[in-house]
Fold these 2 entries.
Entry 1:
Amino acid sequence: MEAAAHMTQKTFTVTDPESGRSSALPVRSGTIGPAGLDISALHKDLGVFTYDPGYATTAAVESRITYIDGDAGVLLHRGYPIEQLAEHSTFMEVAYLLLIGELPTAKQLEEFIGNIRYHTMINEWLLRFFNGFHANAHPMAMVSGVVASMAAFYHDTMDIHNPRHREIFAHRIIAKLPTIAAAAHKHSLGQPFIYPQNSLDYASNLLNMMFAVPCEQYRLDPVASKALDLLFVLHADHEQNASTSTVRLAGSTGANPYAAISAGVSALWGPAHGGANEAVLVMLEQIGSVDNIPKYLAMAKDKSSHFRLMGFGHRVYKNFDPRAKIIREMCHKVLAALGRSDNPLFELALRLEEIALKDEYFLARKLYPNVDFYSGVIYSAIGIPRSMFTVMFAIARTVGWVANWQEMIADPGMRIGRPRQLYTGATRREYLDIRKRV
Ligand code: ACO
């Protein structure tokens, strides 16, 4: 069960070898996982900061939402293992769990789904924003821009210190992200926008908005809806990753929450983060055949090349990413159910994984497939175009972003996020008149 972090009896003492002054740093322990050294007094006591590029060993927040043990390949949402949620739950239920902290009763879930459905439409004025984008605009650019624009529309949720406003914001953004995503897709195709159908479940509604056209009946494939819902469960949250930290940092200034979520969408887009799912497919198509795998592995190992094996490696997982394991199994099932078992890209991905995991370079660095390695194969199989892969990730991760934003804003001890730096630039010098510069 949940419990707040507490100070243990243990302290670490750091001593300045020159002055002999010391700082006693208490240890904070959570419920599970490594404890954290509380360094907040370090600068006051010794006049030094800590230096930790990429925040590789720095916990900046206390959170009760998600727990990862990267060495053991464990991922828990509010204590529940991802494997159990993937098997038994749905995206809407996981969304409730992440936001509220407990699994819902049947009545609570029904009410929650009703609240989300109530908000699926977007303001018609907002829809017109899409006309300002070129047809070839990347959908992530459109989604990020339109989500930020929501800050200019929904003034009834502007008071971030009002819990009811925060709740409406949460329902609204989770409900509208699929509508915005589908509108971006339709804009790229030059097709008319399809309005949400509130009789459909979350994933089916998205598929309908993406693929239906006014002139024909669209038949939803339940295999595709179920696969998408499961992918959403697997992507819903992942503790303090780059995009979630971005949402927290932007939100910590008191910024409008839609603007903070838009910042998260932008951070997710990068190929080192959520953009990797699109990059994996590009890479697999580039590799083309099993015979070319050694050439590309050699490039991935070559430090003078910018090429990396996309979908491989993770800051936290130094063992298999549990989500990748589930998605790989899912690929087999979904492709079989869709009658596409002989999918050449999936075959290539399986061989690439097999060969890479026997390679000393990947073994020594503990580089394993991550969540993005196989997800694109499923997205492709259900007809989602490559440029929309990261948008799918953004739809799911919005729940995690909102849960983290809510947790932060509700915390009475919240402070603006403001990292420090190790300055290595010029020391003080005097301004030189432009005529004297050479
Ligand atoms: N291919 C080749 N080499 C790699 C890869 C890779 N995919 N990933 C890491 N390495 C190497 C690095 O070059 C480094 O080697 P070195 O020790 O000889 O210098 C070592 O492994 C450690 O890598 P770092 O970059 O220090 O690891 P970091 O934790 O900073 O980065 C990241 C993690 C960004 C995920 C990285 O593994 C990567 O770029 N992977 C490919 C992109 C990707 O799949 N991103 C999705 C991540 S999951 C997600 O965000 C949803």
Entry 2:
Amino acid sequence: MVKKRACIFISGSGTNLRSIIKSTRDYNFPINIELVISNKKTAKGIHYAKKFSIPYQTITNKTKFEHFALRFIRLKKIQIICLAGFMKILSKDFVRKFRGKIVNIHPSLLPKFKGLDTFNRVLRAKEKFTGCTVHFVDEKLDNGKIIIKKRIPINKDLSNKMLKNSVQVLEHKAYSEAIRKIHNLS
Ligand code: GRF
């Protein structure tokens, strides 16, 4: 199998990055992570790039982030970009350049609860279920075509932290499943 050359964008703890790295150890997993890009110097996720000897770049320049990212992406001949806890909104221009090639994970059952502070809003709304969604990125926030959703029931008296932990366990399965699914569809 010819594996796609992937770049993972991160801003934070990088647990989704870690789960994708784990999957890449499987011979049949359809991507290789050629590059990790963080827009935050302090992102804990950079640690996983170092640990697994994956090339990484930190681009903290807010206005020129995309300019520099594009340069590295071209240099590494990247074919798919996975946003994994990447907290910067990409410009329409950037998204159009990579239409159908940027994937994101969001901690809710989209189209419900787009945006930030997801878990508090889910709890306040007294939802019976929640989960996570992996989707293609388009010009609107948390909006593109859905690849996979995974859901769990919300038990009474669940705290924000407990809910976040449970959803993250789901996310770590969902992201790799979605990457396999895209490959099987293409
Ligand atoms: C995840 O919950 C993801 O859905 C959201 O940001 C969080 C990132 O977590 N977009 P991590 O950095 O992968 O640990």
